[in-house]
Amino acid sequence: MIGAQAMIRTLVDAGVDVCFTNPGTSEMHFVAALDSVPEMRAVLGLFEGVVTGAADGYARMAGKPAATLLHLGPGLGNGLANLHNARRGRTPVVNIVGDHATYHLEYDAPLTSDIAAAARNVSSWIRRPETAAELCDATADAVAAAMGPPGQVATLILPADASWSDGATPVAPRELVTRRSVDADVLDRVAKVLVSGEPCALLIGGSAMREAGLRAAARISAATGAKLLGETFPARLERGAGLPPIERLGYLSEFMEIQLSGMRHLVIVDTGPPVGFFAYPGKASYLVPDGCEVHVVVDPSDGLDAVGALEQLADVVAAGVDPVVQSLARPERPTGAVNGETVAAALGALLPEGAIVCDEANTSGLWASGATAGSPRHDWLTLTGGAIGVGMPLATGAAVACPDRPVINLEADGSAMYTMQALWTQAREGLDVTTIVFNNRSYAILNMELGRTGAGAGGPKAKSMFDLSNPDLDFVSLSRGMGVPAERATDAAELTVALEKALAEPGPHLIEAILPTVL
Amino acid sequence: MIGAQAMIRTLVDAGVDVCFTNPGTSEMHFVAALDSVPEMRAVLGLFEGVVTGAADGYARMAGKPAATLLHLGPGLGNGLANLHNARRGRTPVVNIVGDHATYHLEYDAPLTSDIAAAARNVSSWIRRPETAAELCDATADAVAAAMGPPGQVATLILPADASWSDGATPVAPRELVTRRSVDADVLDRVAKVLVSGEPCALLIGGSAMREAGLRAAARISAATGAKLLGETFPARLERGAGLPPIERLGYLSEFMEIQLSGMRHLVIVDTGPPVGFFAYPGKASYLVPDGCEVHVVVDPSDGLDAVGALEQLADVVAAGVDPVVQSLARPERPTGAVNGETVAAALGALLPEGAIVCDEANTSGLWASGATAGSPRHDWLTLTGGAIGVGMPLATGAAVACPDRPVINLEADGSAMYTMQALWTQAREGLDVTTIVFNNRSYAILNMELGRTGAGAGGPKAKSMFDLSNPDLDFVSLSRGMGVPAERATDAAELTVALEKALAEPGPHLIEAILPTVL
Question: Quick one: which of A226, A366, A444, A500 is 20 to 30 A from B41 by CA?
Answer without folding.
Answer: A444
